[in-house]
Each structure stands twice: as C-alpha cells, then as structure tokens.
Amino acid sequence: MSKKKKINKGSHPNxxxxxxxxxxxxxxxxxxxxxxxxxxxxxxxxxxxxSIEGKTKDFFVSRKNTNHAFDGDTVTLVRLHKPNxxxxxxxxxxxxxxxxxxxxxxxxxxxxxxxxxxxxxTGVRADFYIPEARSLKAKHNDKVVIELIEWRPKDKNPIGHxxxxxGNAGSNxxxxxxxxxENGFFTAFPQxxxxxxxxxxxxxxxxxKKKRRDFSKIPTFTIDPADAKDFDDALSFRKLExxxxxxxxxxxxxxxxxxxxxxxxxxxxxxATSVYLVDRVAPMFPERLSNIICSxxxxxxxxxxxxxxxxxxxxxxxxxxxxxxxxxxxxxxxYEDAQExxxxxxxVFKEELLKLNELAHILRRERFKNGSIGFExxxxxxxxxxxxxxxxxxxxxxxxxxxxxxxxxxxANKAVATFVGKEKNKTGKVxxxxxxxxxPNEEKLIDFQLFAQKFxxxxxxxxxxxxxxxxxxxxxxxxGTPEQAVLQQLAIRCMAKAVYTTNNIGHYGLxxxxxxxxTSPIRRYPDVMVHRLLDKILHDKKLPTQDxxxxxxxxxxxxxxxxxDAERSSVKYKMAEFMLDRIGEHFSGVISGVKNWGIYxxxxxYNCEGLVRVETMRDDVYVFDERKMRMLGRxxxxxxxxxxxxxxxxxxxxxxxxxxxxxxxxxxxxxx
Length: 672
Known about the structure:
The chain has four domains: about 35-100, CATH 2.40.50.690; about 105-170, CATH 2.40.50.700; about 190-440 and about 500-570, no CATH class; about 585-665, CATH 2.40.50.140. α1 (about 170-180) packs antiparallel against α14 and α8 (about 350-370) packs across α9. It is about 25% helix and about 30% strand. With about 675 residues, it is α+β, with helices and mostly antiparallel strands. β30 and β31 form a beta hairpin. The longest helix is centred in the last third of the chain and has 34 residues, at about 545-580.
C-alpha cells in the first residue's frame, strides 16, 4: 500500500469554494482542575465520556464520578491528572447544567409495597423511586412513563412520578409506543389538531384549479412502497413538440392546507418528522391530511407544488419551472410493479417508465462523476406474522424503480436550492433552508483505510474527490461478500451527519453545491418550510429572518436524529425478538467494534450485532488497546481486533434492553 497522504481539506469535489476548517489533530490545551462544560455519553458499563466543544478528545469519566448525570445531559467537568501521551484525558463530573430529557420509559418493580421504576434507557444507571401518591397505582411489571422530580446529592435513587401507564411490559404494542415516547415523540394528536384536520376540504374546487398550472390530462403516476399510504410525490412525463422531454416532479402542496401559526402547523413543527418503526408509522400530520387529503392517490384531483423540467436526450436540464400545479394521477405503482415493467413486463406507462429510467441512469452517472458517494447503511426489514412477531429477516434491495424516483427527487431538491442559493442570491442574501453535509473525518478515514486493508482492500485518500471515488470503488468490490455490512457501517461512521441550516456549505456526500429538501412535506417539516420560502421568493413576499429559520433548522435536525434513534431501537427490539428462539446456535461473524467491556460481532446473514463480554473470554486475561482498537491477551498474546472473522454462540437475549449476547465458540478465528 502506498504511503498515506494528508487529506487536503481545503479542496472539494464541488466547483464552489469552501471555508477551510481547523484541521489540527490535537489542539487541546487543558489545565488540571479547570472546569469545562460538555455533553455526556454513558456507556453500557456505567463509565462515561464527555465531549467538549472545540476539543478533539473526549474526557473519560469513571462510573463512580458521573455524579447523577444521565446520557445526553449537559454537564460541568473538572480535569484530573495530566494523561500519558496519546491517552484520553480523565475528569470528574461536578454537576448537571441541563437535562437532555426529563421523561423516561421504564418498568414498575414493586418491592415490599415500595414502588420503583427500572428505566429502559441503558444510559440511566439508577432506578427511580416513586412515592406511592405519585404512582397512579401502577402494578408490578407495568410499562410506564415517568417524569424526573429531583435527584438529591446524597440519594441513591432519583425521585420521579408516573405520568402515564402504557400497559403490560413485553407486549409488542406497548414496546413500540415506549420507543416513541422515549425519543420524545407522541402516540396521539391533540384534539384541536384533529379538529383542524377534519375541517379541511377534500375536494379541489374550480376556483383553486384556475390558480394552478393544469397537469390533470398529462400522464402522471406515483411509485411508492407497497404498504405506503402517504404518497407525497408524483411524476408526470411527456415529449414536447420541441423534442425535449418534460418531467414534472409534483409534490403534495401541504402548505396550501396547513396555515402558518395553526394548531396543525405547531404540532408538525414540534414533531418535525414522521417516524417509521418496524411495524407502524407515527406520522407528522394526522392521517386525514397525510393519507387522504394531501396523499397523491390515483384518480383524484390533487394540489401540488412542482419543479417541472425540460430535459434533452442526454438528461441536460434546458429549462425548469417552479410553481403550483393540479394533477390527476392515473396510476399508483408499487416499487415491485414498476420494477417488473422496467425488466420487460407489459403494463400501463411502460414507454414513459423506460424513458424516465434511461434519463435517471444518465443523471446518476453524472452525479457519481461529479463526486457523489454511492453507499448507505443497509436497511434491515422483517417478515412479521399477524401478531407482529418477526419470522424472517432480510436486507432491503434497491433496484432501478427505487433509484429512478430517488434520482428525480434529487434533481428537484438540487434545482430548488440552486435557484434560491445561486440565482436569487445574485441580488443579495436570501434566507433559505439548506440540507448540508460536511467533509468526512480525517482520522476516522485513516483508521478505516487500515481496517479495509485487513480484508485485502487497498484504498487511497489523497483529497476529498478521491475519497468519493475510492469509497464507491470499494463498495462495488465488497458487494455480496461477508464483510460487506461491517465495511459499509464503518465507512458511514467516517462521514459527517447531514443537517439543516441556513449556512450553505454544500452537500459533500452528493457532490452538490446547493441542496435542500423539497420533496417530502407530508413527513418532513423542513420541506414545508422550503415550500413556503420558495412561494414567498417567487411572489416577492416578506421572508422570515435567518435567525428564525436557523432555530427551526436546528430543531428539525435534532428531531431527525431522535427519529433515527427510534427507528434503530425498533429494529433492535425486533432483532432481539427474532434471535430469542435461536439461543444456543452457532454463527460466523465479523468483529465490528471493540470496547473495554468486550467485542461486538456482526452477523452478515441477519445484519445484526451482538456483544461478547470480556468476562466471558476466559482463555486469557484480555486488556483493551484503545489506540489499535483490539483486545490483547496478556498471557498468550492472543489478539481480537476489528475485522477478525470469528465463530460465536448465541448465549442470551434481553428483549426489553434490546441486547444480544454471544460467547466465542472456538479459540480459532474462522473463515466464511
């Protein structure tokens, strides 16, 4: 492998210039006894790590020094002794500045008529004491919502009160509701919100149609998952007399129905996103609006906001128009239906689908040529029986029908952002909502480079554009291999997280100079914001301030992260439930993580991860080598490190904690 070069973070695959960031590997300067403020991350072991803004290294905090802090809290911390070269600094948490949350989910445990609640969240390392007067008479093993009242310095347990009884712990419905509540989402809408939704007019009247560009006679259809009900995008297609292809990306006009400052609006902002758990959706809007009025169902007149493109044979955009439309979808395709037509089956709109797919392929090739990165986390799907129990696991396969829709949604999102960010900003700064994605983390990329080498893959990261090219090449090489899942996940961990902001720095992962979210207003609040902003810009109406938009962007990004956490929790719960019947079985896996408390093993066949606890590794005395991310045996020099292939035995499953435990089944590392 050639010698690694430094990544030039000033360059970028996009043509625009980006501000250089401070890229020093370690610019930390600490004073022993200095008080700092940061965010705490509590590990399963009870130890914690505190990240300090502007510092490259997290502080380690022993479990005995966490001082009543919960996972995610903002805390004050005092630095202990100066660490050895290269080691992590250590500190003591001296106080909690701000709780990340005050409401928790847990299970009631009654001991001699005393009520405790054992929290589900592993980042909360103490049971709550519940005074009987505040217990709502909850029974033993009830799953409940609790609110923290106080946690006095000398008390062993925090004091709380039960605000809601969800039901008997362990039932699928209760556990799914618990996941939503734990992440700050709601299982029901306020009455006023429901009333506003009920009062919305279903019919689109002629007066409204006259205000819109009419596409009702133009071939139009939707392509969505088979079980979807909220169709928020449709495509229209026709060949124009000038020889160009007109492709309309029509998006449900939610902002037409949802008035600013209304109860519907306020509730949508609070939620900021729909949440898609394994077996249900917690929608951002009530079902009457999301599944009926705004959903672009076939054979119904629907109000849309659209980006209408004129493309030539090489998918070059010759013209684009933005504005309100009226459509009448003639066909609702599932992805499977559309894919069959793309693969040769006869059906309605076959000619249109084939041409759209041809244009989408060109758009995709051009995007990758310009620096787009073509990978994402594999999506685990479950086959459920009538009771919701998982009876099968598979990884969702993305084919041309999925990618076709994705490519035209990307085109619309990019076009809207470019129109505002580039064209409108010629006359001055126009406040707008961008979807941005920063450069990847340099140190993580170098670690990933070394990790990939263990599997025989050589990759070079000389500059940001080469990063995208090399990662795309690697993802193609590993497709279908046992190490695919773990390498994909580790590659994703190198990437920054995309966020909403008014400060445009471009979207590194897509290779776009300007990007926003315009195409899913039924399920994402920022898209509603973008529709409103675009309409005001087009009609020279007063715009909100940048500070107002930035506040909404920050909230939306936080809620998006919470939704992702909830969705992952539901997958972990179902995976634990699925693996429960397989205790005692042996599996081949890949070490996907190494911590001081054990090694994590990924099972490629199920795309799931479990823990081999260090105390179960009895053939040697193992110590954690943090710098090289490995477990090292003191007596026999046995090493377990990232990427090693091992055989494990499933020894335990905790459904409520959503954890899977393995033990190493053999002293030898195995090949697949």
